[in-house]
Input
Amino acid sequence: MTILKNIFALGAVLVASASIASATPITGSVGITGAFDSILMSGGTVTGISFAGSIADQIVAGTDSLTSFTGAGVSLTGFDFDSSADGTTFYTSTVGGETLTFVIDTLTPGSLSATNGSVSGTGEFFLTGYTPTAATWSLGYSSSGIDTFAASSTAIAATPEPNSLMLLGTGLVGAAGMLFRRRSVNV
Output
């Protein structure tokens, strides 16, 4: 009976360690505001946006994992409204030693002019202590700067790491093998 208790205790420890090793996604959304330096034009066509960087550039709203960044300053990076924006780090913000970064993966231009426009797409959040998490985003601008920027994570639930699950399975098979061996020796 003691052997059975030990095996159940070992199984409980292995299950607990697998849940600790789970990947933790970033949940929530952010909204930012900022002033742009210039709208980039080429041949009368709007091609991108450039940011001067000012004290007004900040995260104005954050939810869930991103709540602590509300009101924090943010460093904005300009980008072209074409496929070259893919992989651009659009903003970075650091609060209390944690750094939040948003990287553009895809971009779809909406209506664009020198005075107002909109773009949207997909991207990825990076935050110290969390796994990178996919997100959707949209940005609207006018002559005064960014009117709206919203990015929301598309994470649903934590996903266990494959190596941790394999370790758990190996431990359980080994524990079952020990139990079987002891029982067959005692019979």
Notes: Residues 29-153 form one domain. Helices lie at 2-20, 162-186. The mean pLDDT is 81. The first helix runs from residue 2 to 20.
